[in-house]
Amino acid sequence: MSKILVVGSLHHDTMLHAHHRPEKGETVIGSGCSYKFGGKGGNQAVSAANAGAAVRFVGAVGADQQGRFLLSVLASRGVDIQHIKALPQVPSGISVAIMDADNDYGAVVVSNANNHIDTAQLSEDVVWQQVSMLLLQNEVPAAINLQAAHQAKKRGVRVCLNAAPARTLSTDLQAAIDLLVVNAVEARELSGMPIDNLAAACAAAQALSHRFPAVVVTAGEHGVAFCQSGQQSHSLPAVQVQLVSTHGAGDCFMGVLCTALLQGQTLAQAVAQANQVAAEHVSRQPALPDALPTA
């Protein structure tokens, strides 16, 4: 069975709920707190596994309670965790997110162990056995992504980058990417074009397709645009749902998208499926906390 190899981040998330996110110098009284499995790499791996993909993960956690929890969640979803190192010298990655009354959020991430992923194992053939797609994000150092992408290209493995959060991509990394997925902010940073409607997302996808073989631009409530190099861009409107929480929507989209492509669907079919599942995700109440408070 073909596999998705995820090289990426794992975070122990603290979710805070408040009426609004604090301004500079402001203290806000919150209304709730929960602890969850997170990290873009981890969330996307779980999403892909839930969608039916066989998933292998290369990453790092601390040799701490948070790290043990992160590994247990991945293993419980059927993700291959044998290439995730538990490092005694650094703590696991963490994030703190604040969800406001409008069900939107902002977050602060501290990478910790995610900055110390052992890239030597990426040259080992066992890591790449049965792998047909590499999935990357921007929550680990750029050098790690570049090394993983180079190893993938040597083996004829398709490389998908979810360029989140936004940062400058090296020429070498850009040359290795087969599919680029960005949201409106990241598309603006890479294309120089503001994304405030679906037509603008289409224009950005078209422009970026001159640099990447395939591009997907997610534009939140406007919908999603996509384009393959040498073709016209296309778009789908957002699926109309009652918004409950946007947290994790992008990672849900990525896991479903990559799984659909791995299963042989066209880009248009895969985008449509991911668009639908992500809409269902934002319309549901968040699951119960995956972790208890840690000392």
From TrEMBL:
ATP binds at N183, T218, A219, G220, E221, H222, G223, G250, D251, N275. Its EC number is 2.7.1.15. Substrate binds at H11, H12, D13, G39, K40, G41, G42, N43, E139, D251. This is Ribokinase. Belongs to the carbohydrate kinase PfkB family. Ribokinase subfamily. It is an enzyme of class 2 (transferase). Catalyzes the phosphorylation of ribose at O-5 in a reaction requiring ATP and magnesium. The resulting D-ribose-5-phosphate can then be used either for sythesis of nucleotides, histidine, and tryptophan, or as a component of the pentose phosphate pathway. It catalyses: D-ribose + ATP = D-ribose 5-phosphate + ADP + H(+). It comes from Serratia odorifera DSM 4582. Homodimer. One of its GO terms (biological process) is D-ribose catabolic process. InterPro entries: PfkB_dom, Ribo/fructo_kinase, Ribokinase, Ribokinase-like. Activated by a monovalent cation that binds near, but not in, the active site. The most likely occupant of the site in vivo is potassium. Ion binding induces a conformational change that may alter substrate affinity. Residues 1-286 form the Carbohydrate kinase PfkB domain. K(+) binds at H247, H281, R284. Its cofactor is Mg(2+). Transmembrane segments: none annotated. Keywords: ATP-binding, Carbohydrate metabolism, Cytoplasm, Kinase, Magnesium, Metal-binding, Nucleotide-binding, Potassium, Transferase. GO terms for cellular component: cytoplasm. One of its GO terms (molecular function) is ATP binding. Requires a divalent cation, most likely magnesium in vivo, as an electrophilic catalyst to aid phosphoryl group transfer. It is the chelate of the metal and the nucleotide that is the actual substrate.
